[in-house]
Design brief:
The protein has 282 residues and is mainly α. It has two domains: 60 residues, Arc Repressor Mutant, subunit A; 192 residues, no CATH class. It contains 13 helices and no strands. The longest helix is centred in the middle third of the chain and has 25 residues. The protein is elongated. The two termini are 22 Å apart. About 12% of the residues have low confidence.
């Protein structure tokens, strides 16, 4: 294989950087190779010398962002040593918040890959799969030891990811208020406390029939009932709006926001499970 010169390597980096910006901004289909070449300050012929197919360029752009996602050494050791969730969960939340703050384009590129280019799944799995496996294995061991409730490890992993990513983005979209958090540390502490409470062993189980459920469980029951009534969540032109109209008609504004976040988490988990379940290319 011919060794690339430094000039070629610099040109390729410029192409990939321009592609990442435009794909994240406009999507896969709307971002043209001509626009990418213009932003990289080259002609389109040169672009095709490096990337003969547009999907290859998209995968290179996604990979350039995913390659920057690395678990810190401290968090890796905490996971491997099965340290207390009170230590590990805040570390996971901080890790996710830092990614969203430092790489906003990555979040959008993942959505583009999910909706427009399912063939890019293997790139995402190769980079994020080991992180997903490490965190899920930790929660699995904690559940087996009785440190947390016996829940599916993937549910805990994807649930934390969905909570952090959904609230960060949907709060700006749906709420008229400013962010309730004054700093990244305060935000991380709030998410961590939420999930530590959710995963903690419940030592006071109320099994008496006829007693009212706690408020949060009533909301979950309502959400599940709505999902049963309107199962067509894949059709954004029918299922989503129907659910949202139904929610606005029968619930408070506060719960409307929580309900929308729940829908987002549901969608995100389905997409993530699709990534994990798709067969690896040979």
């Amino acid at each position: 294989m011919e060794q690339k010169s430094p000039a070629q390597s610099v040109t390729e980096v410029r192409i990939i950087e321009a592609a990442a910006q435009l794909f994240a901004r406009h999507g896969f289909k709307a971002a043209t190779t001509r626009e990418i070449a213009q932003l990289a300050d080259i002609n389109e012929v040169t672009l095709f010398r490096y990337f003969q197919r547009k999907p290859d360029l998209f995968c290179a752009a996604v990979n350039s962002r995913l390659s920057r996602v690395k678990l810190g050494r401290v968090l890796q050791m905490s996971l491997a040593r099965d340290e207390d969730p009170a230590i590990v969960v805040p570390g996971i939340v901080t890790f996710l918040l830092n990614i969203l703050a430092q790489q906003p384009e990555l979040y959008r590129l993942l959505h583009v890959a999910a909706f427009e280019l399912p063939g890019a799944n293997h790139v995402i799995r190769e980079q994020l799969g080991p992180i997903f496996d490490a965190v899920s294995a930790y929660f699995q061991r904690c559940a087996e030891k009785g440190v947390i409730q016996k829940v599916a490890a993937s549910l805990a992993t994807l649930g934390i990811l969905g909570t952090v990513s959904a609230h960060c983005h949907l709060h700006r979209l749906l709420s008229v208020c400013e962010s309730p958090f004054a700093s990244l540390e305060e935000e991380a502490a709030a998410y961590a406390e939420l999930w530590l409470r959710a995963l903690a062993q419940n030592t006071q189980k109320n099994t008496a029939p006829g007693l009212p459920l706690p408020d949060c469980r009533l909301k979950v029951r309502l959400l599940l009932q709505l999902l049963d009534d309107f199962p067509s969540l894949d059709d954004t032109q029918t299922g989503g709006p129907c659910l949202w109209v139904h929610c606005k008609r029968y619930s408070s504004q506060c719960f409307q926001v929580q309900f929308a976040i729940g829908l987002w988490q549901y969608w995100f988990c389905r997409v993530a499970f699709r990534f994990r379940a798709s067969p690896k290319p040979r």
